[in-house]
């Protein structure tokens, strides 16, 4: 949610102005000067010639404009009028609450099923080790090297690998010209857009700039080990996905309140939640900047500096980053570590028992006995 794409709107407006001028049968005076044309004296029969040649020139100018602008053309949509502006936030609010509840409910079920299958996985691993000893070893086996690399990663790094892969796929989709309209509609979050809810989560995996994606994914990779060891992979995924939606909703509210509309995209809101949670839980941990490793500072001071910078950006109206989404993600991360873990995750047992009863009633495949009891007592 960090990246604000506003400069392209000016490009779109200029293109439309050029297009309208060409359709009228004339080139704009500035375009004539750039191309070296001189305004000839008007002749009575020149009007028909201009009308006949107008469409051809129009097509060539549009094609040239498209070649000059690799960035996507954002849909220029008028902001909603003030009386009904905040009424548009009802659906995003309901979506935020529902998606957050579903994320934590799915994470609780995921943990339950993981614990149930632990015994079976143990026997599968024993069988795999036995087969590995029996069958002859292959030299240069690519699968074996990949497995060794995967096993060398921490649980947190393995957890965020899927997130990084999803971001990379979406980044590649931005490079396909035929997908531009679809990507703008569903993978950028804008309260003035016709599509409000689905972009709240999809824009969390969306980056148009490679540097933007690389910086976000590096920070996520760096904090993944600490965050997953602190929360567990299931709870981490629930917090990360919920943070993406919550930070987008905070961005919606601030854009409606200030009238500064524009599309936003990026994982920075969710990553700010992860960073804030780790810094709140371990404020004395030492951090360093990758390019300046000789300068170290505590995690608590880093969090204070980031929150102060985003607050200043929000108050002063800086538009390069979506500071409201950053602040929403940071506040959610701090709140979750201090209060949310106790209020949400530690009170999941009634829901897990309902799922356990549902699985038990399904018959032998649903699992019962000792495995179900262990799952219900998580």
From TrEMBL:
The keyword Hydrolase applies. GO terms for biological process: signal peptide processing. It is found in: Mitochondrion inner membrane. It catalyses: Cleaves type-1 transmembrane domains using a catalytic dyad composed of serine and histidine that are contributed by different transmembrane domains. Residues 42-51 have a biased composition (Basic and acidic residues). One of its GO terms (molecular function) is serine-type endopeptidase activity. Residues 200-340 form the Peptidase S54 rhomboid domain. It is an enzyme of class 3 (hydrolase). It is a multi-pass membrane protein. Signal peptide: none annotated. Keywords: Hydrolase, Membrane, Mitochondrion, Mitochondrion inner membrane, Transit peptide, Transmembrane, Transmembrane helix. The chain crosses the membrane at residues 93-112, 159-176, 196-215, 235-254, 287-307, 327-345. Its EC number is 3.4.21.105. GO terms for cellular component: mitochondrial inner membrane. Residues 33-82 are annotated as: Disordered. It comes from the Eukaryota. Belongs to the peptidase S54 family. This is rhomboid protease. It comes from Oreochromis aureus (Israeli tilapia). The gene is parlb.
């Amino acid at each position: 949610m960090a990246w604000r794409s506003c400069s392209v709107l000016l490009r779109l407006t200029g293109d439309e102005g050029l297009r309208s001028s060409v359709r009228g049968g004339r080139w704009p005076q500035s375009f004539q000067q750039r191309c070296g044309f001189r305004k000839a004296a008007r002749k009575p029969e020149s009007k028909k010639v201009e009308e006949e040649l107008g469409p051809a020139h129009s097509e060539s100018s549009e094609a040239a404009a498209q070649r000059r602008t690799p960035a996507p053309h954002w849909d220029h949509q008028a902001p909603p009028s003030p009386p009904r502006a905040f009424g548009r936030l009802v659906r995003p609010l309901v979506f935020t609450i529902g998606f957050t509840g579903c994320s934590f409910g799915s994470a609780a079920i995921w943990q339950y099923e993981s614990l149930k299958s632990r015994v079976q996985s143990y026997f599968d691993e024993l069988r795999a080790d036995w087969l590995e000893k029996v069958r002859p070893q292959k030299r240069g086996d690519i699968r074996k090297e990949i497995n060794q690399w995967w096993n060398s990663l921490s649980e947190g790094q393995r957890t965020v690998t899927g997130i990084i892969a999803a971001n990379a796929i979406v980044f590649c989709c931005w490079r396909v010209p035929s997908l531009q309209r679809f990507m703008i509609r569903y993978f950028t979050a804008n309260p003035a857009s016709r599509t409000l809810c689905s972009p709240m989560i999809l824009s969390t995996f969306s980056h148009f700039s490679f540097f933007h994606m690389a910086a976000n994914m590096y920070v996520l990779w760096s904090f993944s080990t600490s965050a997953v060891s602190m929360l567990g992979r299931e709870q981490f995924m629930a917090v990360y996905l919920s943070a993406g939606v919550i930070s987008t909703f905070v961005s919606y509210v601030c854009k409606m309140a200030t009238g500064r509309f524009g599309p936003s995209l990026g994982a920075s809101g969710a990553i700010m939640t992860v960073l804030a949670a780790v810094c709140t839980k371990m404020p004395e941990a030492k951090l360093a900047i990758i390019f300046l490793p000789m300068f170290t500072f505590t995690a608590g001071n880093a969090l204070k500096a980031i929150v102060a910078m985003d607050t200043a950006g929000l108050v002063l109206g800086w538009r390069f980053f979506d500071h409201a989404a950053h602040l929403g993600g940071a506040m959610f991360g701090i709140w979750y570590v201090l209060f949310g873990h106790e209020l949400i995750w530690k009170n999941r047992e009634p829901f897990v028992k309902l799922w356990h009863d549902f699985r038990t009633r399904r018959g032998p495949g649903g699992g019962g006995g000792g495995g179900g009891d262990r799952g219900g007592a998580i």
